[in-house]
Write a structure and sequence with these properties.
Oligomer: single chain
Radius of gyration: 46 Å
Shape: elongated
Strand content: 15-25%
Helix content: 40-55%
Distance between the termini: 46 Å
Largest sheet: 5 strands, antiparallel
């Protein structure tokens, strides 16, 4: 940037140029700043609206999902004996269960060894569990008790080996990974290092099959035995999935009397879904009213005051909230039927007792009101399903709000481009003005210098000084 000291003219050129440029710059930049502030206000307003609508859509996820509205709760009169869980597909009801035997996994134990480093032998252990094909486990030469344990565990043969301390001695224990009478363990030894595969020495001391029983059975493989509502049943495991549709139980202990089990609809959870929706709706409503408000007395206006799209979206949401859903086939047509009423300020209010009664006595109709149903191939959507669809149109990637914010971002880019153009123009104006003032300052300096030189020459002329003193000059 060119600068000038004003030496020739004595003028404060920098201040003069700044004032000239500012006179041009300030109105332009003021308009740019006003445009940016207007867009920033809109971006903030639509951002708030988008957040509140997203929260409302989240609260609709449960109410528009029939499986969640069928939420159940299950309980056991003695969870230490039998525990129970139920999914939404479970039907409410009561059961009694008696347990006479728990499922157990086959367990075998070896004779004693003086130490875990005692050499067992070498060869091949063929381990079979139930009807599964045998797995061959190679035992290296001079393998110790610990080595045999590690080789079995690395074999993925359906058993787990461990070392049991028995007083001052040690035993090798082999347990089937799965419970049930069918999962018995058979161990066959071949290639024993002592050349005898069926004696009770070397590796063959770990044989346990139809012909050799050198291992001791410490626990038999067994199925669980129990009754359900008096019906005798068995299970290979103590964790029984879908013992009835949507119901899982875990057998924990043998019982002397039957344990009562119950399954019921989780009305408190469903009530929570409704309360969450009402809360989110009221927050959205209050926020939107604040965004579009206008006070004629004070001139106070919301950031989206006068925005037609925001008002249209609000109108569509209100239309569904106050609508009637007679075609969904239930006994509830409006929110009022469920104890949810519209207040004067546009918010919703819940009559807890009325809502609880509706959920407990006619959950099917509550589900139809919120979700809808399909009749003869025609789908009739309920309140929550329709609101969810509406929110998708507002919030999805190509929805109204993302597209609006995208357009505002484009306006911001244009405004910043204009700002850059104005900055460049003002810089050019400043440089031109400085050049002109510098040229003027240089010319005045030259004039001043010439005048001084002429004055000196005149002063040197004979008699000129007397004339000047007499005033005749």
């Amino acid at each position: 940037m060119l600068t000038s000291t004003g030496l020739g003219s004595g003028l404060d050129i920098d201040s003069i140029v700044t004032a000239i440029v500012d006179a041009e710059r300030l109105p332009l930049m003021s308009r740019v700043a006003a445009r940016r502030a207007e867009v920033d206000t809109l971006v903030s307003g639509f951002g708030i609206l988008q957040t509140q609508m997203a929260s409302l859509r989240t609260s609709l996820a449960s109410l528009s999902d029939a499986s969640q509205l069928k939420a159940t709760q299950a309980s056991s009169a003695d969870a230490s004996a039998v525990s129970i869980t139920a999914s939404s597909s479970a039907q409410p009801g009561g059961y009694s269960m008696g347990i006479s035997a728990l499922a157990s996994a086959h367990s075998l134990v070896s004779g004693t060894f003086s130490a875990t480093t005692t050499t067992v032998g070498s060869g091949t252990l063929s381990i079979a569990v139930g009807s599964n094909a045998a797995t061959d486990v190679t035992i290296a030469a001079n393998a110790t008790v610990s080595d045999v344990r590690d080789a079995i565990n690395a074999s993925n043969s359906g058993v787990t080996a461990s070392i049991l301390k028995d007083g001052s001695s040690y035993r090798l224990m082999i347990n089937a990974d799965d419970t049930g009478a069918a999962n018995t363990i058979a161990v066959t030894v071949t290639n024993d290092s002592d050349s005898v595969n069926n004696d009770n020495a070397g590796l063959s001391q770990l044989a346990f099959n139809a012909n050799e029983s050198h291992l001791t059975q410490s626990r038999a493989a067994a199925d669980a035995a129990f009754t359900l509502n008096g019906l005798s049943l068995t299970s290979a495991t103590n964790d029984i999935k879908n013992i009835v549709d949507g119901v899982d139980v875990t057998l924990n202990a043998i019982t002397s009397t039957a344990v009562s089990l119950s399954i019921s609809r989780d009305s408190s959870k469903i009530t929570g879904f409704v309360e969450s929706f009402v809360s989110s709706y009221n927050t959205y409503m209050g926020s939107t009213k604040s965004l579009i408000k206008y006070d004629a007395k004070t001139g106070d206006a919301g950031s989206l005051q006068g925005d037609a799209m925001t008002r249209s979206m609000l109108s569509q949401v209100r239309g569904l909230i106050t609508g009637s859903y007679t075609n969904v086939g239930g006994n509830f047509d409006t929110l009022t039927d469920l104890g949810i009423t519209l207040q004067a300020d546009g918010s919703l209010k819940i009559d807890g007792a009325k809502l609880d009664t509706a959920i407990r006595t006619d959950l099917d109709s509550v589900e139809k009101f919120f979700v809808g149903q399909t009749v003869s191939g025609t789908t009739h959507k309920g309140l929550a399903s329709q609101l969810d669809d509406l929110m998708d149109g507002f919030l999805d990637t190509t929805g109204l709000l993302p597209e609006k914010l995208k357009a505002l971002d484009a306006r911001i880019v244009d405004i910043e481009k204009d700002r850059a153009v104005f900055d460049a123009r003002m810089l050019a104006l400043e440089e031109r003005t400085l050049r002109k003032f510098n040229a003027m300052d240089l010319l005045l300096g030259e004039i001043t210098t010439t005048g001084s030189m002429l004055q000196a020459q005149l002063d040197a002329l004979p008699g000129f000084a007397n004339l000047r003193q007499s005033g005749s000059r």
